[in-house]
Amino acid sequence: MAVAGWRRRLLAARPSQWWAVAGVVAVLVTVSASLAALGGVVPVPVTGEELAAYLALTAMAVVAEVFVLHVQVKREAQTLALSEIPLVLGLAFASPGALVAGLVTGGAFAYVFHRHQRGLKLAYNLALKATDGVLAVTLYSRVLGDAEGFGWRWLLAVYVAVAATAVLDAATTQLVIGLHERSLSVRGMVAEIAIYPALAMGVTTVAVLGVYAFDDSPISVLPAVGAGAFLVTGYRAYSRLSERHLSLERLYRFSQAVTSTPEVNGTLGSVLAEAKELLRSEHAEIMFFGTGASSVRIALSPSGRLERVSLQLRPDDPSALQPGVELRPLLMPRGGREVAARAHLAARRWREAVVVPLRGDAGVIGTLTVADRLGDVRTFDVSDLRLLETVANHAGVALQNSRLIDQLRHESLHDALTGLPNRVLLQRRINEELDLMREGGTVQFAVMIMDLDGFKDINDTLGHQHGDELLKAVAARMLDAVGPTVTVARLGGDEFALLLPDCVDAAHARSVAQAVLSELHHPTDLDGIPVQVGASIGASLAPAQATDVSGLLKRADVAMYAAKSAGGGVRVFDADLETSSPARLALVTDLRSAIDARAITIHVQPKADLATGSVSGVEVLARWDHPSHGVLAPDDFIPLAERAGLMRALTEQVLDQALAACAEWLRDGRALGVAVNLSARSLADDGLTDVVTDLLDRHGVPAPLLTLEITESTVMSDPTRSIAALHSLRSLGVRLAIDDFGIGHSSLSNLRHLPVDELKVDKSFVTDLGRDVEDLMIVRSIVDLGRNLSLVVVAEGVETEQAWHQLARTGCHQAQGYLVARPMPPALFTGWLDQWLAHRRGTLAAFATAST
């Protein structure tokens, strides 16, 4: 090929899209075999002369593919390879079999051992190389005919053969890229087809002159080869020098950008964006180290938005600080041999990366990383490592000047609304108390969890802004009640925690908890409205009830729910409480076992278009077939999973089954979406985005076919964190829906801030739609709101034909309910769908009766 090189975005295609490459490879192999059979090409050297020609052509093909000229065009990297030279020489002096075999073998060596290609990409390049060779010798022999020597007929045959292979290369490469991106551009393909032959003709002319020189006098080829090697070497040196000048210019622009932005997020964004541009990479991120193994990762999303993730570094992570060991710059090139580096790249799904220390006044404060160079022609090298070190030095100064480090560490350990320690810092301090206790410094301490009573009603009535003000007031009063030695933390929503060091006994814990309740008893003024809120507090003692963080928090949680069940107040965990609800504890154990055994199943309930009756997707509903209690609905076991810390495993299992069903329908030619509900705990899980990404990739389901449903109250229990999580999910391309819309708080004012695609009208407004005028007015208002915001509106609980027609008249888009179908196992859905499509023009009520 005169110009080779796959765009980086092709490499990022999902597994489900590799069928396009496989199809092209199959076509190329078929064409190659057909042409070989037609022309009698036997790609196996049989004589000594053919073997010598084969070995010579193999060596030339390797050289042509290894010693290439890199050309960077905007954000694409391409390779100018001199592969026409061995092709022309093979046409002139070798047999067809030796030529094809030499080109394929030499290409294979270069692709595998130099470019480290594997899988379908390697298969594509080798199939294309074989097809190029067979096509070239076939056309060459047809055009040349019986002509002898190197006259005009030979020239025509050579140029026709090379031009045909160049057109084939351009067309197939553009076809594969278009299939992967699902946006095949005819104009782009025509442009590439025009460029490839032009470049190929230039290299072919050089090869033709070499043939004439060799034919005249073999010794005359040596000066020509030397001149060509000198020109190639000179161009590569010029390219490197030009690249250095460009890097210096970009570095100057980078230093100006990062020093001219005093705002923290602006500085971070400039550092990451300019680092990506400087090293022409796909990814850039900064890792700030906290105490111990905790850290904060900040990356730049494709949309240019900063994404923060708190995480714990593994001891074997090559980018982690080791005690007593200086963190050194790390070069992790493509195809590297170091085990730790390869594991790190595999965990992040990168091909290559460069990691350099980020230094502040107190030493190393983190790392700056760029990964995956644009294009497929070069990997990172030592010069890139040095350049990124220079970038990191500028970045360290800029970030230190903006006092970023302290702010980031504080943000990662404190609640954004109240300023109180968050769950991470609380757990860290509990661990510190446990360490002191083991060393004999602390005799006993208490952990308490407090949940506000009636907060949801206040939040729903006055709106989340006033709810936020109330939470801040509660935080301030708790601090006043307990003093500076007690840690007060916010766990999320209206849930708080306290860590009481040197707690004498259970009575001491009760007295502190009562002091908090007494302080909360006084009304709080919210814009002239006096509001009073109660609370329920549960406490556990260490070491009497547990000697680990998880055990102390769980027992405090159990005690808190016991206090709430008793009407509020304080409850200290004890042995009687452990045995007072054996059924609940047994059910939690059964649920954990069911999740481990993947015994949680799903049912699906279709959503039908109110105008046409067509079905575009389903809502997924979890089911647990308990051996003693029978089939349990989500309301029966989701709260248990939330309190037992099982929500991530449960959510992942439901998503996995939903996407597996979706993938199966796709294979049957049915592009049907699936909608899965998320709980508040799932939305607060920092790893949710990664889980969704992995499952979409595993099943090969396009992101828009997955809808994640959340309720308004779920979002507004912690709006700052929830909205950030929704934006992170939305960036994947999945759809988002607000479930049970209309019964939350401040629905109209909050909706415009949420990145949602769909509203689901709560079934309480739909059940009596034909009989209650007020319900109809509410539904019409919600539909109008959704249409004005370009949102799909879905009505839940549609059970009568009258409700269907009423909803259709309001302009509502979709209906879900028993009139369409009851929830069913996914295996039965396609059979139901075929019946629905056959009957949807008939009477809906009659079909519903037949289907149930």
Q: Name the overall outline.
A: globular
User: What is the CATH superfamily label of the largest domain?
Assistant: EAL domain
Q: What integer value in Å does the Rg equal?
A: 34 Å
Estimated share of beta-strand residues:
15-25%
The assigned structural class equals alpha/beta
Mean residue pLDDT: 77
Largest sheet: 8 strands, mixed, barrel
- Read across the widest sheet, the strand sequence of neighbours is 17-18-20-21-22-23-24-25
Number of alpha- plus pi-helical segments: 31
Classified by CATH, the class of the largest domain is Alpha Beta
What quaternary form is this? single chain
Write the CATH fold name of the largest domain.
Answer: TIM Barrel
Please give the CATH architecture of the largest domain.
Alpha-Beta Barrel
Short description:
The chain is of the alpha/beta class and 852 residues long.
